[in-house]
Structures are given as structure tokens and as C-alpha cells.
Design a protein that fits this description.
It is a single chain. With 326 residues, the chain is an alpha/beta fold. It has two domains: 226 residues, Alpha-Beta Complex (Spore Coat Polysaccharide Biosynthesis Protein SpsA, Chain A), CATH 3.90.550; 74 residues. Helix content is 47%, strand content 13%. It has a seven-stranded mixed sheet with strand order 3-2-1-4-6-5-7, with helices on both faces. Helix 1 links the parallel strand 1 and strand 2. The radius of gyration is 25 Å and the shape is elongated. It starts with a strand and ends in a 26-residue tail after the last helix.
């Protein structure tokens, strides 16, 4: 088996050499062959040149990808994962706040049978008001919405079996939600406490503006994990609720007419009832169209709607490896 350490880099020229040395030291005792893949995400400092020099000096272990511009951390990680050759993939930041010394213990958990090992920065070395508090709120919200309960979704340091990452593409800020995706297909997930260090060089790349992106991506994750294979349950359910409210309003208007003698047509509630009924019907129709798209997606590409962990005395089918969201 092989281990791939995937590292996104953005304006981290001062950290790269020390990170390289620390990873070499940490992985000496690992029984697997390994590689580190460093992805420069359009850095504006000397990071690209430092990475190129490092790749020339250590070609056996260091692989480098230089992106044309800054695409964001998630896209950089996706590029690294696509080019990784390992059966086990570890994601880690380049800013030296994650500790490579934690990697061997996480790989051991993979050997024990877990599919995802998520790092938990138990003693986080960041400012409380602008980093730790928003992170705790986000972690609680993500855990509640997705049903996959982790203390630290935002910690990049995570280890995955390769097949867990092969069933979906990463967009937006989706890398933090990989455990939620994995949980939706039945992955075995464990969270372990990892070290966290104060930032030595450079400055943090993210602030409170990231919260909006996380909330929007969370909505996407919830839809994909719960309703991607049965979208009419969502759209149709919303439609039925709107039509039920419309019916209740009409019933109220009729009763009010009989008891108080008020005209139904003159009431603004009648217009609201009609609008809700139309919106409900449109939502149901939208759900039916989404159902057709889902069936076209699975049937045209012969994608299975299930995932298999293991087969015994059977030949594994080609489409068994395709990951469905449900």
C-alpha cells in the first residue's frame, strides 16, 4: 500500500522547507511507501519557485502541482487527490499549524478498519472570538444538519481510504464536508485529537466572511446527502405543505363567511391562498423533473444506487465502485 500526503499551498514560502523536513521525520516509521503532493494555489510570493526547487532536490518523495491562478483550498485539494497514487490519502495544511507527527497515528486507525480519520484540534492555538467561536458554532450546525457528529470539521488534517474519495467531486468550500459525504455512504468514521501550533509565518487566509460560504455549501451537502436520489421527497413535500396551507386558508375564509358574513373575494387571504396553491403545484412538478434527471443520471452512466464495502467469493462489478449519495 502507498500513502499520499496532499498539501495545498498559498503564500507559504517560509513554511515549505520546514514542513518538508517535518513530514520526512514523521513518516520514517510508517510501514508504507509514501509521497507528498504539494499544490500551489496561485501563490503571489516565492512559493512556486521554492516548490520547484524542492521537487528537484527530493524527486523520490516530492510531487508538485502549480495551478495557473488562485482557485481556493478545495480546488487545490481536489487537484492533489486526483494526482495522488496512494491507497491512503492524508490532507494537511502547509502553514505548520497542523502537526505531521500526528499522521502515523491516523494511518494506524485506517489500518484498524476505519475509512475516515478526522483530526480534532482539541487545544487550538487561534483567537477565540474570530476563529474558535465561529468554528464551534459551524461545527455544531454541520453536525446537526448532516447527522455526522464531529468536533472539528474545519481541521484540514484528515486521513481517508482512497475509495471513499472517488465517488464525488469537490467544489466551493466542500473539502470540510468530506466526512459528511463519507458518512452518507456508510463510511466508518473516527475522530482523534491532534496537535495544533500557533502560526509561525504569514497570516491566516480566512476570516468571518467564510461563514456565508459554509452555510450555502452546507445546504448543498444536506440536499446531496439526503435527497439526491429522491428529490421529489423534498420538492414534493414542500409543495404539499404549501397546498395544505392554501387549503387551510380557504377553509378559514369559508367559515368566516358563514359566521361573520365577510366577503371571501375582498380578503387578501384569498390571493395568498391562490399563490400558495400555485407555488405548491410548481414545486411538485419541479420534484418530478428532478426525479427524471436522477434516473437519467444513474441509468445512462450505469451508476449503482448503492455502495459495497466488501465482497466475498464474488467478482466485484465495475459499477460497484461508483458512489451514490444514498
Amino acid at each position: 500500500m502507498k500513502l499520499s500526503v496532499v498539501i495545498p499551498v498559498f503564500n507559504e514560502a517560509e513554511s515549505i522547507h520546514l514542513l518538508h523536513q517535518t513530514i520526512h521525520k514523521a513518516l520514517k516509521a510508517v510501514k508504507y511507501s509514501w509521497e507528498m503532493i504539494l499544490i500551489d494555489d496561485g501563490s503571489q510570493d516565492e512559493s512556486p519557485q521554492v516548490l520547484e526547487d524542492l521537487a528537484l532536490k527530493d524527486p523520490k518523495f516530492v510531487k508538485v502541482i502549480l495551478l495557473r491562478r488562485n482557485f481556493g483550498q478545495t480546488t487545490a485539494l481536489a487537484a492533489g487527490i486526483d494526482h495522488a497514487s496512494g491507497d491512503i490519502i492524508v490532507l494537511i495544511d502547509a502553514d505548520l499549524q497542523n502537526d505531521p507527527e500526528d499522521i502515523p497515528a491516523m494511518v494506524t486507525k485506517i489500518d484498524e478498519g476505519y475509512d475516515v480519520v478526522s483530526g480534532w484540534r482539541f487545544d487550538r492555538k487561534d483567537t477565540f472570538l474570530f476563529r474558535i467561536l465561529p468554528s464551534r458554532i459551524a461545527n455544531g450546525l454541520i453536525s446537526w444538519v448532516t447527522g455526522v457528529h464531529l468536533h472539528d470539521y474545519g481541521c484540514t488534517l484528515k486521513a481517508y481510504r482512497r475509495d471513499i474519495l472517488s465517488g464525488f467531486r469537490l467544489y466551493g468550500e466542500m473539502h470540510r464536508f468530506i466526512p459528511a459525504y463519507a458518512g452518507s455512504v456508510g463510511a466508518k468514521i473516527i475522530e482523534v485529537q491532534v496537535n495544533h501550533h500557533p502560526r509561525k509565518y504569514g497570516k491566516a487566509k480566512y476570516g468571518l466572511e467564510r461563514i456565508t460560504k459554509v452555510i450555502l455549501d452546507l445546504m448543498t451537502v444536506k440536499f446531496l446527502s439526503s435527497y439526491a436520489s429522491k428529490p421529489n421527497y423534498l420538492f414534493g413535500g414542500i409543495g404539499l405543505v404549501l397546498m395544505a396551507i392554501s387549503a387551510i386558508i380557504v377553509l378559514f375564509l369559508v367559515i368566516n363567511r358563514l359566521i361573520a358574513g365577510e366577503h371571501i373575494v375582498r380578503s387578501p387571504l384569498l390571493q395568498m391562498s391562490v399563490m400558495l396553491f400555485i407555488l405548491g403545484g410548481q414545486s411538485i412538478l419541479l420534484g418530478l423533473i428532478a426525479e427524471l434527471l436522477v434516473r437519467t443520471y444513474h441509468e445512462s452512466q450505469k451508476k449503482a444506487t448503492y455502495t459495497i464495502r466488501k465482497v466475498i467469493n464474488l467478482k466485484e462489478l465495475a459499477n460497484d465502485s461508483q458512489v451514490s449519495t444514498k
